[in-house]
Design a protein that fits this description.
single chain; 382 residues; alpha/beta; five-stranded mixed β-sheet; 14 strands; 37% helix; 23% strand; PTrfase/Anion_transptr; PTS_HPr_Ser_P_site; HPr-like; transport; sugar transport
Amino acid sequence: MFQLSDNDIHLSAQATDKQQAIELVADALVKAGYVESGYLQGMLEREFQMTTYLSNGIAIPHGSLNTRHMVNKTGVQIFQFPQGINWGDGHIAYIVIGLAADSDSHLTLLRQITRLLDNEKAVKQLATTQNVKQFRSLIMGDTHYSIINAESISLGVETKSLLTLTALNAEKLQQQQAVNNDFIMELLASPALPLGKGIWLTDAVVGNQRNAIALSRAKQAFTHNSKLVQAVLTIATIDDHIHHTLTCLLDEQVQDILLTGSTEDILIALYTQPNTESAVENSPTLIGQIPTIETIVTIQNTHGLHYRPAAILVNHIKKYNVSIAVQNLDNDSQLISAKSLIKVISLGAQKGHRLRFIATGQEAKQALEEIRKLIESGLGES
């Protein structure tokens, strides 16, 4: 099993050109005991034969066949060059991974790097982050670290202020470089969303830098605008890797753990898939039931159906004892369960997109009428 340690990562490196960058990498491989001192020559030979630049700002210099005998053990040294290195042919490398291999244990890393080649946001984070643990998490694809960890959970907070809990979450997210000042400014100026049971949600459209969640829980419950407050969740999101965890938040058992559990209990709960309604794509049972009622509603939200309005919609739909499917008519999506948050978000509904809802059950007509009103009112966003 390939292991990447914090000592194998070098942030904020500087080099004047490609050769100097390779020299830095080779020297680090030698000092780490992975290769003998002559390995540099093989790396330069390999680069002369064929560029080791991959794409999306990543290069992987490594030795030639003539220097393979100089490898003591498999290992890597990863350098971050925030200013970029001219790798030739108009390519700029921000992440340079020096590789020495005498076995196939490094293939885990190479597979993850291949996935990064199409993820511009992740590579941009790799090129700029000053947090070694975050860098390692992004390289190795450790999404659990990316989303929530013990350091982002605050329990037993002595306060009776919703804003205080939100600000504490914002501080935690900023410390982990998940958000910037733009996020915090919008977050503190925006109203929180009550999810129920005393749990409130806060987020911002701008300033998200990576997927992350922070949780603050008051020592004693209090009220805000006549509604119970016990805990505040603050969400930062940049892509769909956070969807699994977001779906967990709507599970009642998970919500109970958020309100009463220990830090370890909360982490386990958010890593465990809750029981969610199964998919209904093209379900003949649902589509063939009679009577079936449907409606088409146009999304009004400026930023589309992102997590916050989607959560409001799904929470509302779950109140009704009906079967409801939805599809996005403007991107030819299939019918999916409207009671699944992850699936509703995956519709990719933008402002002006038309959503088609199909409902079956005694409360179908009432549910669709309320859904229409909710969407046309902006789903909690002005």
